[in-house]
Amino acid sequence: MDDQSFLARRLDRAAAPLAVGDVLVVMAFLTVGTLSHTSTDFLASNPTYLLGVWAPFLIGWVLLAPLVGAYSAGAAETAKSSVPLVVRSWVPAAAVGFALRAFVFRGGAALAFVVVILVTGAVALGGWRALYFRLR
User: Fold this and answer.
1) Which positions are tagged coiled coil (predicted)?
2) Cys bridge to 65: 12, 52, 71, 89, which one at CB 3.0-4.6 A?
3) Total domains in the fold of the chain
């Protein structure tokens, strides 16, 4: 019988660089999307605006990604194991982000937005992880 808790089995220290990169990638693609819909002048005059954009999705990511296995031992081994784990983690994490965005933070969750964020997030996170394993 394994004495490790469920969460302990889902977290591997070797995946720490992946966790840092994942958070930066989520922030980056949300920033790029925001910049495509708002002006830099608006962001300069509303310095906390991006925090409200990032927060719901980062909360969803921090809550769900470890549970799904984005930072498990398998995630830290190869791109072949890591990329599917990060994509599978993104879907429920984004769902939490959409709910938080619609009910707690500013913004909504229109269908077009949901599709764009799901696809863009999966491609960005999967691409980052594939690149990480290619370069290491």
Assistant:
1) none
2) 89
3) 1
